[in-house]
Every structure is written in structure tokens, then in C-alpha cells.
């Protein structure tokens, strides 16, 4: 058993162990408890539901790796979606052309990047704690969105954008393909670009990174700007999926993005983490939700279990870290 564990860690990485065990546990438990859990319908549902949460988790991932956090991800996504919606409304609404949609997407990306840029600059140049800055940004974006929409929603878009939220290519959901492409981009960023190395250095020890010659302010600004861009992608996907945009869409996703990141092995203090374990953790959370739905459980119970899971994961990681440290001292 020890040899198998060592081979697994050598092949996939030690941080993949937790998500892999959680995946097997969910498959076995719900496979036995619900007769129709292991079916194409379940996996199809997961494939369409995963991208929204997944893109927001990717937006949360980079700030977490720097030792920070972005509490404004959902409202950045919604305000970005609103920017795209307003552009299409200005060019005919349901009769808007593909060019108008592309212009709306650019407006969404610009909005998300601007929100991330302001957040990153505030954190980098004032050295205020990311929790305080992003909480302030969250309140600002929520209030601004509700003021501009008067608490309502914006709807009525051209029919050709519906496949972005519901369509498939060769049997693969388009939102899932977009999400996988974003996962690949984040993977390359963290493993092949200087920014990936730099943000991990910042997360490990920002003062050491500064003395090493890294421009830590620039890194933080770029990290939060990229986070805002990923929020904008999520906002466009949600617009296409719901055929409407509302400031409060996806509010419940905020803490789940943090849970998915921690379940995927991200160090809560920054400096360590990979994209692929987080991807597996997201699948586990969606399978858990689908399994509970099949068993007739209330959705609020799923949310409660996600909270319990976060506590269990953090406790387990602390116990394992303490055990490993004690073994090293004895050795």
C-alpha cells in the first residue's frame, strides 16, 4: 500500500492525493446509495454546471497563491456580464449582431480587468490586507450594479449566444470546453511563465521576493487583473446560460471557490498549489451536489455539507502536516 501511495505521489504529485481519495469516496458512496448516479445524465449535468463555478475558482486561485484572496469574484463576474448585456441592448437586444456580441465580450473583459486592476493596485501600493480591499471592492461592485439595474435584471439577447451556455461540440458542452481551455492557460501560466514563479515567491515570502529583485507590486497588480479577466469570462458564460444578467447571480459560489481551492491542495497562506488538483476537486464538489440531488436532499443541505467538508479538509491537512513534521524530527 505504501509503495502504491509513493508511486501515485511520484506520478501525479502529493497534492493530488486528497482530491483523488475524495473522488473515489463520492463515486463509491453515491454509486451505492443512488442507482442512477453513475450514468450519462449525471455526468452530463456535471459537465454543464461545472464551468460557472470552475471559472470563478480559477479567478480565486491566483490571489490565493499569493497569500491573498479575492472576495469580489462573483460581483466582478456579474458586473462584467452587465457590461456585455448593455452593449447588446444598445445594438438591438435580441436583434443584436455577432459583431455587437463580440463588442460586448470586449466590454466585459475590460470591466473585469479594470476591477481587478483597481483591486491589485490598492493591495500593492497601500499594503492593505487583501481581505479588506476585496471586501470593499465586493461592496462597491454590488452597490454599483444594483444602482445601475435598480435591483432588477437585464435580459433579451440574440439567440445565437445560447449555444455558448447550453450547446455542445461533438458531444462536449461548449462551456466545459471553454473552462478546460482556461485551465490549460492557468497551468501554462504557473509552470512556464515568470509571472507564475513570481506569484508563488510572493505567496511564500513577499519580503524575500522583494529582496530577490522581483517587482512584487507589479506581480500583485497583474495577478488581480488576471483574476478580474477570468471573472469576466465567467460573467459571459453565465449571461449565455441564464439568458439574463443580475447582480446577485452566483453569490453562493464565493465560499465554494475557496473550498475547491483548499480541497485541491492550495496552501491557505500562499506559495504552493497547482491547477490540476483544483480541477479534480471541482469535479468532486459537483458530483457531491448531483448525488445529493438524486437522493432528494435539499440544496441547502449540500451547501451545509460543503462547509463541513471545508472544516474536515483543513483539519486533515493540519493533522497530516503535524505528523510529517514530527516524523522528520525523529528522523
Give the helices and strands, then pairings.
Elements: H1 2-12, H2 17-33, H3 40-65, H4 73-90, H5 98-126, H6 130-149, E1 153-155, H7 162-166, E2 168-169, E3 172-173, H8 174-192, H9 194-204, H10 206-211, H11 216-242, E4 244-246, H12 253-263, H13 275-294, H14 299-330
Antiparallel strand pairs: 1-4, 2-3
Q: What are the defining features of this structure?
A:
mainly alpha, two-stranded antiparallel ribbon, 14 helices
What does this structure look like?
The structure is a single chain. With 331 residues, the protein is mainly α. Helices cover 76% and strands 3% of the residues. The strands form 2 sheets. The protein has a two-stranded antiparallel ribbon. Helix 2 (17-33) runs parallel beside helix 13 (275-294), helix 4 (73-90) packs across helix 11 (216-242) and helix 12 packs across helix 13. The chain is globular, with a radius of gyration of 20 Å.
Separation of the first and last Cα atoms:
22 Å
Shape: globular
Q: Write down how many β-strands occur, each being a DSSP E stretch of 2 or more residues.
A: 4
**Going across the major beta sheet, what is the strand order?**
1-4
Provide the structure class: mainly alpha
Taking all Cα atoms into account, the compactness measure Rg is 20 Å
Mean pLDDT over all positions: 87
What kind of sheet is the major sheet?
2 strands, antiparallel
Residue fraction in strands: under 5%
Q: How would you spell out the order of helices and strands?
A: HHHHHHEHEEHHHHEHHH
- Helical fraction equals over 70%
Low-pLDDT windows of residues: none
